[in-house]
Amino acid sequence: MTHTDTRRYLPPEDLVRNAHVSGRAAYDALVAEAEADPQGYWGRLAREFVSWKKPFTRVLDDSEAPFFKWFDDGTLNASYNCLDRNIERGLGRKTAIIFEADDGRVTRVTYAELLERVCRTANALKSLGVAKGDRVVIYLPMSIEGVVAMQACARIGAIHSVVFGGFSAQALRDRIADTGAVLVMTADQQVRGGKVLPLKTIVDEALALGGCERVRHVLVARRTGAPVPFQAPRDIWAPALVDAQPATCEPEWVEAEHPLFLLYTSGSTGKPKGVQHATGGYLLHAALTCQWTFDLKPEDVFWCTADIGWVTGHTYIAYGPLALGATQVVFEGVPTYPDAGRFWKMIEDHLVTVFYTAPTAIRSLIKAAEATPSVHPRRYDLSSLRILGSVGEPINPAAWTWYHEQVGGGRCPIVDTFWQTETGGHMITPLPGVTELVPGSCTLPFPGISAAVVDETGQELPWGQGGILVVKKPWPSMIRTIWGDPGRFKSSYFPEDFKGRYYLAGDGAVRDARTGYFTITGRIDDVLNVSGHRMGTMEIESALVACTELVAEAAVVGRADETTGEAICAFVVLKRPRPTGEEARKIAAELREWVAREIGPIAKPKDIRFGDNLPKTRSGKIMRRLLRSVAQGEAITQDTSTLENPAILAQLAERS
Ligand code: PRX
After folding, report:
1. Is 530 a known ligand-binding residue?
2. Where does the sequence pass through the membrane (predicted)?
């Protein structure tokens, strides 16, 4: 494959001149340094970017590969690195967070104020008996409290696991149970796009489902002040307890490998996996990538629009920008409320210089701007912007070009950052002062990341040939294990087919024949990417068949969707005769609601088709590739001779 877009997007000269990584020669030198001596390279950066209580003497311990350990005889504290250290450097009065609420109200906190809030919250957790190594589940809205909660856990060495506010009581229960959490931090309610979500009630429901007996307390922040059910002594109001605490809290110095957090993500089985990250290596990459990929400078105003419930909100809100002492915007709401000009207005109001969002948001804002000229970005003053970023899914060239021209005024480089929950931070990405851009390509590996495209046997493929994306060498912010399931960690990410040496990303990729630039071609496993949210097909199937009254069997596949990237398409066999017409529509609506309750609204299938059966081979295996064609509305060109019941395909092609 060779890129067809022949326009050249060179990095702007003034940006190159002042960039942290300036020019291609500087990039090549870093790559060469990392190649020649990986441990020397990562060790140097770990000393530069992270403050250690006890300096490490060993960079990498690979004696138990793939359970790699980084900087493991060093000790540090992530919250000290993100807060105290900045204050010691004279940044106490600098704004750390500009928070904009759903209704537009703005609150600012300085680094000194943030430290004080983190310390009080950390002391509150300690007063409730939370200790180093305990798990704390955080189910909070996008808020200063959300960031404070994460930092407070880090301060006392508790391991946080943030659950996205859009997940249901059932999904929340599963995560609380799997982590064995002793405490849940939540709020009375969440407000997004003018809509209220009863977080505290959902926590109550989750705990009532059982399996969460280790939870001793629920710490409840106030967002709306609405009355909520309250069970003393289990439930505790956060403001009263937190405000009564001392304003300082000595950090708990932890070993570099001490888990900083667990974050659940979907894989190719029914059960989400708790990705475990280690304090030292993760913090290094969070800070380093923030500095190099976003070229963050002291005067920048950074805005990452992700939710803290996803990894992007961890690395590029809660840790990376704070580790660099940056000023950032944190937003409670959604891009389309009160209208689809919200992002552009906020960039204008807060003089945002570096803006990081997802292709799905861009695509929906393009549609809105085309329909309603008053929310078009050209109606706003976006001249403060200097760098744009994209994350979470492939950005199609048309959306890239619009983002570049209409939002960035043609002058801002776009960093299309490829990475995953498991990788902790950017893996393949342009650097704004280095890379000539090609729309739709995440370009070249971050210095030190040895990404490659291989075949099924692990053999590296020549440029131009599509294959499997792997990382050939360990890196500091890599996943350490799957919580409670090291066997699954090994088989998912370091399978024997690749001799157990290479990290398997789960994506396909191809390198441009001339430039070697990477383009991600999508997941090669049963994971879908819907609006940048990762969803396992098996997870949705399990949710559907859990509706035992109605559903006999279900198969879920993805199909291309113009706005959401991929859409969820479910094929369902009911325990009653196949419904048609109005009845089919009614049952489909019921099943959608069912899935929303089991997992969350993000997992609702867009399309539900009913059949008397599913297409299976004679040995009973569901033929998913056929279902993919049916979902896509394509003519079936595959060989169907092994199919037990070919007539079923026509039935499944009918929309309900
Ligand atoms: O398929 C890739 C896609 O998102 C997956 C990772 O999802 P998650 O762990 O939820 O993390 C999302 C935020 C980092 C990847 O396996 N993906 C992520 N970024 C890109 C992407 N696909 C193409 N281009 C990207 N820039």
Report:
1. no
2. none
For the segment 390-438, what is each residue's pLDDT rounded down to a tens digit? 999 999 999 999 999 999 999 999 999 999 999 999 999 999 999 999 9
Q: 197: burial class by Cβ within 10 Å (0-12, 13-18, 19+)?
A: middle
Dist. CA 473 → ligand 1 center (Å): 20
- H/E element holding 651? helix 648-653
Would you state the structure tokens that stand for residue 164, as one six-digit string? Answer: 């996205």
Which amino acid is located at 574 in the chain?
L
Q: Which range has the worst mean pLDDT, 7-11, 347-351, 471-475, 637-641?
A: 637-641
* Burial (0-12, 13-18, 19+ Cβ within 10 Å), 471: buried
Q: Which of 281, 275, 262 is nearest to 72 (CA)?
A: 281
Cα–Cα distance for residue pair 561/50, rounded to 1 Å: 42
Rg from Cα positions in the chain: 24
Q: What is the ipTM of this complex?
A: 0.99
Mean pLDDT of the chain: 95
Handedness of CA 563, 568, 569, 572 (dihedral sign): negative
Report strand pairing: 354-357 vs 387-391: parallel
**CA gap 515, 429 in Å, rounded:** 14
417 marked among binding-site residues:
yes
How far apart CA 383 and CA 408 sit, in angstroms, is 8
Q: 76 CA to middle of ligand 1, Å?
A: 29
Predicted model pTM: 0.95
Q: Which residues surround ligand 1 with Cβ inside 6 Å? A: 265, 311-312, 391-394, 416-421, 442, 505-507, 520, 523, 529, 534
Please tell me whether 194 is known to bind a ligand: yes
Instruction: Please answer whether residues 281 and 256 qualify as being in contact, where contact means their C-beta atoms are separated by less than 8 angstroms.
Output: yes
Containing H/E element for 183?
strand 183-187
**Backbone φ, ψ for residue 267 (5° rounding):** -125, -160
Rounded to an integer, the average pLDDT of 563-576 is 95
As a whole number of angstroms, the distance between CA 175 and CA 548 comes to 23
Those residues with Cβ within 8 angstroms of residue 68's Cβ, 6 or more apart along the chain or in another chain: 60, 61, 62, 474, 478, 480
**Cα(393) to centroid(ligand 1), Å:** 5
